[in-house]
Amino acid sequence: MAQEFNITDYFQRIGYAGEQTANLDTLRAVQYHHATSIPFENLNPFLGIPVRLDIQSIAQKLIYEKRGGYCFEHNLLLKHVLEVIGFKVTGLAARVRWNAPDDVITSRGHMLLLVEVDKERYIVDVGFGLMTPTAPLRLVTGVEQSTQLEKYRLIGEKHDFILEANIRNEWKALYRFDLQEQFLPDYEVTNWYLSNHPESHFVTELIVDQPGRDRRNALHNNRFSVRYLDGRNEKTVLKSVDEIRDILQNVFLLKLPDTSELDEKLEKLIIEEAAGT
After folding, report:
1. What's the number of domains the chain is made of?
2. CATH, residue 103
């Protein structure tokens, strides 16, 4: 039975004990604590478990069950919390450009937030996996903006914005978006596709990411990597189900779903990766 969602429980989950006032300092602190406390993960689609987007289901999973989620879950939860605090928040949608060829048009498969603070607008996003920003980004183009980890910038293109991150001194596009407001039914349609379509990478692959104070941890199938702020990059191939479970539980601090299918799926991943398929 789901617990009644209490915003105090959310703050305990992310380790935030600061002010609950709708100002920029609060926004920065809540975004940072959320991003570094609740992992990006796709275990539900990977295991064929429904991804529900009502706020009670999201809170049950991300707060009380000590799980993570992907963009819709993360950003809908944060949107709800920010609105309770008193922020004006608008849900947006983006076309992911990360690792996509320039001539390929992607779907509006990502959710982000537009937050207004003291008549200034900011992009806030706690659900972009490997490159989740850890601080709000002003909605201005052509300006480098520092976060606790990478630098970001927004590029204007026609009526759209493209968010880029500076990775090893190279600017790389993350996603493209406009300012058209999106609503829960919009996200529900995309969420169903991403969590059910047999060719969706959220269904076929294991993806877990989380930024930390001086690093980004990433698990893709059975390949675990740690990219440090100082430029070091450690990579490990996990060769057993127990090793993957250990990373999920002791690095990402996830409480794993209690299903026998998890070990079966992880074993299959290891075999497929070893075979190069």
Report:
1. 1
2. 3.30.2140.20
Per residue in 152-162, pLDDT (tens digit) is 999 998 889 99
Q: What is the pTM of this model?
A: 0.96
Q: Is residue 14 part of a domain?
A: yes
Among candidate residues 33, 71, 74, 209, the one labeled active-site is 71
Question: Looking at 33, 34, 74, 110, which residue is catalytic?
Answer: 110
- Active-site residue among 33, 34, 74, 125? 125
Domain limits at 180? 7-275
**pLDDT band at 105; cut points 50, 70, 90:** confident
Q: Is 71 a catalytic residue?
A: yes
**Confidence grade of residue 2 (pLDDT, cut at 50, 70, 90):** low
Residue 179 has pLDDT above 90, yes or no: yes
Taking only the tens place, the pLDDT of each residue in 74-94 is: 999 999 999 999 999 999 999
Say if 50 falls within a structural domain: yes
Identify whether 214 is part of a domain.
Answer: yes
In the chain, % of residues over pLDDT 90: 89
Residue 221 placed within a domain = yes
277 has pLDDT over 80: no
Catalytic residue check, 110? yes
**What is the residue-wise DSSP string for the chain?**
-PPPP-HHHHHHHHT--S---SSHHHHHHHHHHHHHHS-EE-HHHHHT-----SHHHHHIIIIIS---B-HHHHHHHHHHHHHHHT-EEEEEEEEE-TT--TTPPPPS-EEEEEEEETTEEEEE-S--GGG--SS-EES-BS--EE-SS-EEEEEEETTEEEEEEEETTEEEEEEEE------HHHHHHHHHHHHH-TT-HHHHS-EEEEE-SSEEEEEETTEEEEEETTS-EEEEE--SHHHHHHHHHHTS-------HHHHHHHHHHHHHHHHT-
